[in-house]
## 1
Amino acid sequence: MSKMMNAVQCEKFGGPEELKFTRAQIPTPGPGQVLIKNAYAGLNFKDTLTRTGAYHAGNPELPFIPGIEASGRVVALGDGVTEVKVGQWVAYMTATLSSKKNDCYAEYTTADIKCVVGVPDDVDDASACCAMVQGLTAHYLTHDSYPVSKGKTPKTT
């Protein structure tokens, strides 16, 4: 494996024009982490806010590689990881939503194993990716914010 990868990097806060293609070092997984070769990366509201420098939980230091959710194949395991295997298809978030860790707009990303799930064979790769943050958001909105049920519609004002 080459030690360099392709990535999209945010060099300064602002609009999408601040995203630049670059070459970056392939990260090495630390203890409790996996290295994933990405196939899909999601685009979330947090990514947009972080790119502009307006994320309420804080922004990463510049320059940074954006992206908080992706799917791909595990290519390396950090010390202590037994939950997944090299070659396994997974979907993941890089860390919690309050974290400043991003890095999914790259060929390879490390992620904490607690933020990684195996993908069943009957779930397509793109759906697995967007089920992480976007799927959890949809679940939260339809179960906690406004529980959806047959015949029930929100009241309009």
## 2
Amino acid sequence: MELAYYPGCSLKASSEIYDVQCKRVLSTIGINLHELDDWNCCGATSASKMDDFLAVAMPARNLGIADASEYAELVIPCSACYSRMLVAQKMLQSNRNLLEEVNGELSSKVMGKTKILSILEAIQPTVHSGDLANRVTRKLEGLKPACYYGCMLTRFPYGVPTPDSVENPQGMETILETLGAAPLD
């Protein structure tokens, strides 16, 4: 599977090890990542608190770059970046004037054709196909992790469709069970 990849600022700085881990784990299970060319900060921690237009325009530039790429799906491991990009995409889809204003300044226009995936969504198809289970060389037997999703993967300020239950997400549990762990409720 070939996916576009947006690491975001954190994965290139303070969370660099997460970037390395994402690339290594996903490549091991047959998912090849292609980092977006010339991506920019999505503004998740700053723009969204200071300027409503920038909160959409900054991620929109990345969405335009993704739309211009050859990949239909874009994986974003950082939950804040994932949330910011999904919200911006939804706002642009629902507000034609905003889309035209933003696209007027972009060299790569937002077309809304790229599906945005969290790291969990990127891994899920390998669970359903059996590829993940087939690639496990050492089961996580005996581990009983408690999964924590935080608010950025399932709760959005706008009507953004979620791939998992908002009240009781199970994507992480499904992946961990496939790896041999016994997640706690």
## 3
Amino acid sequence: MELDLRHLRVVCRVFETGSVTKAAAALGVSQPSLTAQLQRIEAAVGGPLFERGRSGVEPTALGKHVLGRARVMLAEMDDLLGSSRRYSDVPRTLRIGSLRTSMFGAWLGRLEDALPDREITTQADVSSAALTDLVAADILDVVMIGRCDDDHAPPCPPGVQERTMVHPEPLVLALPLGHRFAERTDLVLSDLADDIWICPPAGKEDGDLASLRDACERQGFTPQFRYYNLDSVEIEQLIGVGRGISLCAPTVRDIPGSVILPLVGPPVSWRRVLRYRPENTTQAEIDLIHQTFIETYRAAIADIAELRPWWWRHPDLHPTVIAP
């Protein structure tokens, strides 16, 4: 078998997600199909590219070599395709990326109504860093990401611009219904020094773990992480059966078997931003993308406020929405 670019993307996706199963879901193919394809790729390069580790698959020495070369080749090809489009008069598709969120469908509906003459394609991911890489490589035009503080956030690449839409967005805490603090009206981080924390969804590292660890250590303890390489559904299931706790965005839907409580005291927060390539979009389009997102966000917050009795008791913990 001769290797081509799609095979290199498979290798990179398996590494980024840490799992053949999750890579298959991200690529829209079945797990057995991707496993067979990966085996053919390994036969072509002469050996195994991954081995199973404690927190998922990890690259072998050969895998690290192939990944390094694959990333360079894919970046060069993406740059070639992106730069070539600038010489075409054919109207371009608007390529939108987003963190996985329950608001995505509603936002996309508003966006398509606001831009009826633009064909829109979409791609979702659990990782802000991975989405940033895609816009930097000119695979996506605009991405909506959430990012923690600047010390840990994935940096904005050269040539890519950033616009803040929500900041600060104080994070909330998801606890099992049987948790000792489930009847409380609010919590501080130091209450949770003895708890097991569930890691953010698997994917390229965004800095969220480091940011949470710093926030906890400022309160005098180091958080205990036990569960790795999970997707959002698995995280919700673990919370629901009492295996751990997790930080969440304030727009999080109700999780079966859990309670959502606010964190008071020193805030744990992030921001929602757009990152975009200015040569691929007009400022008017960016304004519309921004406006439709905050309209969707405000609607989601209004729905959540009706479900959580503590919401109106903590106006200081409400997100700050920034209009375009």
